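I am writing to request your help with a piece of structural work I have in hand. I set the record out below, with my sincere thanks for your time.
___
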Amino acid sequence: MRFDLADLRLFLAVAEAGNITRGAAEVGLSLAAASERLRAMEATGNVMLLERGRRGVSLTQAGEALAHHARLIERQMARMRGELSEHAKGLRATIQVLANTAAIMEFLPGRLASWMAMHPTIDLDLKERQSAEIARAISAGHAEIGILSDAVETGDLHLRHFATDRLVIVAGKQWRFAGQANIAFREVLDQDFIGLMDGALQSHIEDQAMRLGRKLKLRVRVRSFEGICRLVSNGAGIAIIPATAARRFRRSHALSEVRIADAWASRRLVLCCQSPDWLTNQARHLFAHLALNA
């Protein structure tokens, strides 16, 4: 039975996504090409690896075994590339990092600046994901380092504190709830909202509304916290953003800020990896730097 590295990466991507289409996109293959590769893997091994259903795919016992060994191979390959890169003059290395919206927009830029300046031959493949997706991807070996909310299930992942992130409501000074110390999310669901165009944070907020049986009344989506603050300060609606962003724009925009009383709005962000011993040397240095500066 012979599988190449491309086969194993595809299989892990499909297993993590629970869907062949999304798994194929993750490794840059068309659905047709990915399906053909997966069928060839099953034919080569004379074994069924995936249970295919109307809502996606799940792993058979043989598939679980293959996924386990594929993850071990991925980790060993990452370590090999990392160690070889230290002996190769001018060879660049890349560290794969997954993080949620708050980490990417509020905390990472400042913490990464000095480290990246000291390591000019190391690049970062930084992608935004929801916390639950990050935990699954790190467990599956699709990235080396994750930054996520500790409210999600992290299993046996190695965790270190990264930051505390509190979400707040921002609005114009004339908002009827301006001046209150805090407010329940349920109480503002009849308001017009300004949201982020894309991202894990916006999905997280909308999920919380759905849990209450409601849907956010979104007037417009914009790309940045600054754009949100500009709109809400002029009365276009209200928004939910990290408290760090609200503090940063409070002086330049006429904002009122009210804490959300719900537990989900206060999040402890953590660094995660499968194990520091399984990281490449470069990734281990970065992990230690981010943990030290927490």
Remarks:
- The mean pLDDT is 89.
